[in-house]
Amino acid sequence: MMIYSGSVDLIKDVIKPTPKQREFMRAVNHHRYTLYGGAAGGGKSYILRWELVYLLLRMYKHTKQKGIRVGLFCESYPALKDRQISKIRMEFPEWLGSYKESACEFTLTDALGAGVICFRNLDNPAKYLSSEFAVIAIDELTLNDKSVFDFLRMRLRWVGITDTKFIAGTNPGG
Question: pLDDT tens, 66-75?
Fold first, then answer.
């Protein structure tokens, strides 16, 4: 499969989003802040991690900038492992990149821009005071105080990327 023959190939052949997930992906293209809500089992965590891959590929294609970093946050490391890290080991094909457990990071291959998905917990957001991310994703946004959202928005910046994104998933009622 040719990644650069178009983003459509990645979406169609690898991600295979549901209609609601496609709607979310379209919304992300047009908005800086996008929330994906829905019942448990609706694929929110799935589309957050794949949307980060898609955005890293798109940013690399447009800027030719290697090593762009994005963050995928959960309220704790056990939640990250259960909802995200355990899944990327099954879902992400080997040709896409590799996961480094010691850093809790997935790095795309050099040919795909060497972008990095940083898996981070939110037990103490202040530890990200000097961090910068081209995209921030929060899995289960309502499990965190609004102050965490406000704090992370200040980390949403990357030199050479003018279209930074903040995306999140949440269950209703929070």
Answer: 999 999 999 9
CB 69 within 8 A of CB 158: yes
What number is the average pLDDT over the span 39-65? 92
- Can you tell me the mean pLDDT for 91-118? 95
**Selection from 64, 57, 71 nearest residue 117 by Cα:** 71
Cβ-based neighbours of 2, under 8 Å, separated by 6 or more: 9
Starting at the earlier edge strand, list the strands of the sheet with 135-139: 33-37, 165-170, 135-139, 69-74, 116-121, 105-108, 97-100
Rg, the chain, Cα only: 15
- The answer to whether the CB of 57 falls within 8 A of the CB of 11 is no
Q: Are 140 and 113 in contact (CB under 8 A)?
A: no
